[in-house]
Write a structure and sequence with these properties.
Elements lengths: L4 H4 L2 H17 L3 H6 L8 E6 L2 E6 L10 E4 L2 H8 L14 E2 L2 E2 L2 H15 L2 E3 L9 E2 L2 H13 L4 H8 L4 H7 L5 H10 L8
Antiparallel strand pairs: 1-2, 2-3, 4-5, 6-7
Helix pairs in contact: 2-4, 2-6, 7-8
Length: 196
């Protein structure tokens, strides 16, 4: 998707969008959460870096389940955010601006879907009703984050990282959902036969 950004986004805004796509991919934030994320504690969504722990605080007003929650951040997510120099950690974490100010969530969503289509990343078969395939969108960055994490952590940790209300949501979409990836992981983990 990164390589397809210039096909959709002007050169002036391409760097902002690249950072946004990478950030969503390594933090697992929903589009709405990433758009609200600020460096300032007390914002709807903000990172917490204390005592070597890396967390994300999300107030209920900014998330689907309506609850205030802290969730663990992956080391990759923390490294991504901490790469921003301390003197620049103020305001929005992701600057996504247009000619008349900050872009809306709807506009960003449409642009990311256009980038997914320009990249040719088809995430679902052709819909028989519309005759069109589904291309990667902002939520597919969150799905990719979860699928990658599902093989590295226990389901309970994944549920916390995704901030799902129920473990059933985590189980349904991410734990054991990708048979091809599981088969590949098992093939790679195969032990050579040992002699008695």
């Amino acid at each position: 998707m990164i390589a397809a950004i210039p096909k959709v986004i002007t050169v002036k805004r391409a760097i902002e969008f690249e950072r946004f796509l990478r950030g969503c991919f390594v933090t697992g934030l929903r589009l709405s959460e990433a758009m609200k994320a600020r460096w300032d504690s007390g914002a709807d969504v903000f990172p917490l870096f204390a005592d070597g722990r890396h967390l994300v605080w999300v107030f209920g007003s900014a998330q689907k389940n309506g609850r205030d929650e802290q969730s663990p951040m992956t080391p990759e997510g923390a490294e991504f955010l901490l790469a921003t120099p301390a003197r620049e950690r103020h305001g929005f974490i992701f600057e996504l601006n247009g000619g008349s100010g900050r872009l809306t969530e709807t506009t960003v969503s449409k642009l990311i879907s256009q980038i997914g289509e320009a990249a040719g990343i088809q995430v679902a078969p052709i819909n028989p009703r519309t005759g069109k395939p589904k291309f990667a969108s902002a939520h597919d960055l969150r799905r990719s984050f979860a699928q990658g994490l599902a093989y590295r952590v226990r389901p309970a940790v994944l549920k916390l990282a995704m901030r799902h209300k129920s473990h059933l949501t985590t189980d349904r979409f991410y734990v054991g959902a990708d048979a091809q990836a599981a088969a590949e992981a098992m093939r790679e983990a195969r032990q050579p036969p040992q002699s008695p």
